[in-house]
Design goal:
This protein has 22 helices and 7 strands. By secondary structure, it is α/β, with parallel strands linked by helices. A hairpin with a 2-residue loop joins β1 and β2.
Length: 473
């Protein structure tokens, strides 16, 4: 046993051993049965946008079932379309691959930054604390832009800190950070730039680095300009209402609901950041005991904390909006691992290792055993969409919908689908097919009394849809 342990310890000191181990764990945790799981959350929308980009060339103003998509820039669908160009089609693999790669690249950044100041074991732990945190496990193989935002935000931080550590942040480095943040803004709008902006600004203030303020201004001007250019390129009168709503600025929240929302977000973040959030604070506890703490700890803490507080207090917020803080907290936890070696911290280290080991085992079991065992359940959206398709192919007619249930409709290939406003149902000419939320089916006769509606299919996967056949009375 000692010989094996010695060999493992020696292996961990090899230059590329830890990064290779991280990549292998990521691959085993993310890739198995990837296509068994049908789309969930906003995946279908991103896949449909990518499909429209490839089919119609609508790069800046894509359409989803005839509706113009103007909510935010479409970096993830652009990347999905690029992967699909290589693989041949937009499917679960091509849609999820860009977001999945963002996860492992961020984990490697976390490991690399931690390794500068800590042991190989601590750097591996930091990467695992990031990649297998409950927040990341929800998005590990999901085609949504949160992991892209996290990658480009933390990459900008690392590029900036490299300059600080070298003694000077030059103009080219500030511009490089700005370009990374501009790419971030093309993924989800400018709001997540706040992690870099608030964290770096606070560090410059507390360390009196006033000479860097012009560079920071130029850096932040780049993503602001990119956002304005995109907005100007796609703008149509009325778009401002969509953007205000997307930014959760449309209305003043009820104070009771606001308090409940903040409490829910705080609780969710506490759970989703485990166990790194348990370990990281002991970095400062160890400093009070006289242990040396790397200088990177302060900017990491500012980067992670300030914008997360804003996210928690923002109306209509959600814990996933705080994902950019996860790599910084993981690095802090890795640093804490190396400065809490005394016996009095043994309980803390055991708890952290136990939790992260449990999360890794959970993910491995989920992807390799649970998903194939319950393939019908995890493929529910695909099964529902294919059921709708079979009914339409048996009796072809134009297809309309009243809501963007893209996770199911993505798998419906029976013909082009066009979404209509409920007020426009009266303009539909029979014969036709109409896909509507199940609860709206009883209202159909009231909206268009000249049509006879017959229920053909009801899906049992959320959102529950009804496929109605419309014919003249």
């Amino acid at each position: 046993m000692r010989t094996v342990a010695a060999r493992l310890s020696w292996l961990m000191t090899r230059r590329r051993a830890v990064p290779l181990l991280i990549i292998c764990l990521w691959a085993v945790a993310a890739f198995p049965n990837l296509s068994v799981r049908s789309f969930i959350w906003e995946e279908g929308t991103n896949a449909e946008i990518a499909r429209d980009i490839l089919s119609n060339g609508n790069l800046l103003q894509p359409e989803v079932y005839g509706l113009r998509w103007n909510e935010k820039p479409s970096l993830l669908p652009w990347l999905i379309a690029g992967v699909a160009k290589v693989t041949g089609e937009v499917n679960e693999f091509s849609a999820r691959l860009p977001a999945m790669i963002a996860v492992v690249l961020t984990a490697l950044l976390v490991q690399s930054l931690t390794r500068r100041y800590a042991s190989p074991n601590a750097s591996l732990l930091a990467a695992l604390l990031f990649m297998f945190s409950p927040m990341l496990l929800q998005k590990l193989a999901i085609a949504e832009p949160d992991t892209l935002v996290t990658l480009f935000s933390f990459a900008a931080f690392v590029v900036w800190w490299n300059g600080v550590e070298a003694g000077h942040v030059g103009w080219w480095r500030w511009i490089g950070c700005g370009l990374l943040l501009a790419i971030l803004a093309m993924a989800k709008g400018p709001q997540p730039v706040g992690y870099f902006a608030l964290g770096v600004s606070a560090y410059l203030v507390v360390t009196n680095r006033w000479r860097d303020i012009p560079g920071l201004f130029v850096c932040l001007l780049i993503p602001a300009t990119a956002t304005v250019v995109w907005a100007a390129a796609v703008y149509r009168p009325g778009d401002e209402a969509t953007w205000i709503s997307y930014a959760r600025l449309g209305s003043v929240p009820n104070i009771g609901n606001y308090v409940v929302q903040n409490a829910r977000v705080f609780f969710s973040l506490t759970v989703e950041l485990m166990p790194a959030i348990l370990l990281a604070p002991f970095l400062w506890h160890a400093r009070n005991d006289g242990r040396d703490v790397p200088h990177v700890a302060r900017p990491l803490a500012l980067y992670a904390a300030l914008c997360t507080i804003v996210v928690m207090l923002w109306p209509g917020s959600n814990s996933r909006y705080a994902m950019p803080c996860v790599p910084a907290i993981a690095v802090l936890a890795g640093l804490a691992w190396d400065v809490t070696t005394e016996a009095k911290y043994a309980w803390l280290r055991r708890i952290a290792v136990t939790i992260v080991s449990g999360l890794i085992v959970f993910q491995m079991m989920f992807t390799n055993a649970v998903v194939p065992l319950f393939a019908d359940k995890f493929g529910g959206s695909r099964i529902a969409g294919q059921g709708i398709e079979r009914a339409i192919r048996a009796n072809p007619a134009p297809v309309f919908c009243t809501s963007l249930a893209t996770n199911q409709l993505f798998y419906m290939r029976a013909g082009p689908v066009r979404c209509v406003d409920p007020a426009g149902l009266g303009s539909i000419l029979a014969p036709a097919w109409l896909i509507i939320p199940r609860e709206h089916a009883p209202l159909l006769a009231q909206l268009n009394s000249g049509l006879g509606a017959r229920l053909a299919v009801e899906t049992d996967t959320g959102p529950h849809l009804s496929l109605m056949r419309l014919d003249r009375r």
